[in-house]
Amino acid sequence: MDRTYQVDTIKCDGCATSIREALGKMPGVEGIEVSVARKTVAVRFDPARVDEARIRTALTGAGFPAA
Questions:
Q1: φ, ψ for residue 56 (rounded to 5)?
Q2: Alpha-carbon separation of residue 9 from 27, 47, 48, 50 (angstroms)
Q3: Which of 2, 7, 15, 24 counts the most CB atoms within 10 A of its CB?
Q4: Would you say residue 37 lies in a domain?
């Protein structure tokens, strides 16, 4: 499953790295694309292993709440 989240607090490549690190540790997350210019995070994940609520919680915990 693919979902794209609007994350207005993305400011730089360091933010993108932090997001990749936070989500990359989660079982079931298969791909992460962060666009600093568009302020978006696209996540490919296995819904049998992780749900959107956990992804949003991980983003918020890393300091990047999804709109």
A1: -60, -40
A2: 25, 26, 29, 23
A3: 7
A4: yes
Q: Structure tokens of 24? A: 């990359």
Question: What is the total count of domains within the chain?
Answer: 1
Q: Are 66 and 28 in contact (CB under 8 A)?
A: no
pLDDT per position as a tens digit, 35-61 = 999 999 999 999 999 999 999 999 999
- At 14, list the tokens: 């360091």
- φ and ψ of 62, to 5 deg: -85, -5
Burial of 20 (0-12, 13-18, 19+ CB in 10 A): middle
Q: Does 46 map to a domain?
A: yes
**Is residue 55 in a domain?**
yes
